[in-house]
């Protein structure tokens, strides 16, 4: 039997995760009171129970009873009941944005500030994040990308090191991404902007990629970034407990060179045991297409 406890920050994607597990044939229960978890474990462990894949959603909606969860999980371990914890996280900025868009109230501050609810929730469920088998940072993930992550872990049994690397292309003229951990400057590479036929295209097009990589420096640039990631990420995971890294690749407008390098870097990094996501922040900016530099 595989028993997965799905938990994490409110607004980080737990509903999407449980729906995904349901699609994978899991028997899913959401927001079961903490006081009933032990009884539920006994029921699903009984041979007469028809399902061998269970996903249980636990979150801040349990209120003060959440404080009892640590003892409940400890008892399950003592009784040799095996479970896994998948923790969904997101940075405060992403959570605030999601609450603003949905106009939902935070379960821990229904009449107060969402920021206060987020801060309190982080403290109350810190122990779950620290003991989780899998931590998925959804700050920059679309719903389909989160589904892909869950599929990789629970359907394809791929090695998952709890590290999500987000590769973001951007244009310096629009500002350096505040969330970036590493910022790489691709403005030294051949610029397709000055070719009027290539200008309307993007770094997603083969012609642009060939142009940007034409002098051989782009390949050396990529190799150096890969070496940096290969060297530093294991250290970040082990010593800093990091689960998310944002690599920002910049060029003037964020349409040609940075997009090319981000795409090709993503292909190379997928050979490493990390979850890779690519995001082009400024690729669709109309002013750049019209030639305003």
TrEMBL record:
<feature type="domain" description="RapZ C-terminal">
    <location>
        <begin position="163"/>
        <end position="283"/>
    </location>
</feature>
<feature type="binding site">
    <location>
        <begin position="8"/>
        <end position="15"/>
    </location>
    <ligand>
        <name>ATP</name>
    </ligand>
</feature>
<feature type="domain" description="RapZ-like N-terminal">
    <location>
        <begin position="1"/>
        <end position="156"/>
    </location>
</feature>
<dbReference type="InterPro" id="IPR053931">
    <property type="entry name" value="RapZ_C"/>
</dbReference>
<protein>
    <submittedName>
        <fullName>UPF0042 nucleotide-binding protein</fullName>
    </submittedName>
</protein>
<feature type="binding site">
    <location>
        <begin position="59"/>
        <end position="62"/>
    </location>
    <ligand>
        <name>GTP</name>
    </ligand>
</feature>
<dbReference type="Pfam" id="PF03668">
    <property type="entry name" value="RapZ-like_N"/>
</dbReference>
<dbReference type="InterPro" id="IPR027417">
    <property type="entry name" value="P-loop_NTPase"/>
</dbReference>
<dbReference type="Pfam" id="PF22740">
    <property type="entry name" value="PapZ_C"/>
</dbReference>
<dbReference type="GO" id="GO:0005525">
    <property type="term" value="F:GTP binding"/>
</dbReference>
<dbReference type="InterPro" id="IPR053930">
    <property type="entry name" value="RapZ-like_N"/>
</dbReference>
<keyword id="KW-0067">ATP-binding</keyword>
<keyword id="KW-0342">GTP-binding</keyword>
<dbReference type="GO" id="GO:0005524">
    <property type="term" value="F:ATP binding"/>
</dbReference>
<dbReference type="InterPro" id="IPR005337">
    <property type="entry name" value="RapZ-like"/>
</dbReference>
<keyword id="KW-0547">Nucleotide-binding</keyword>
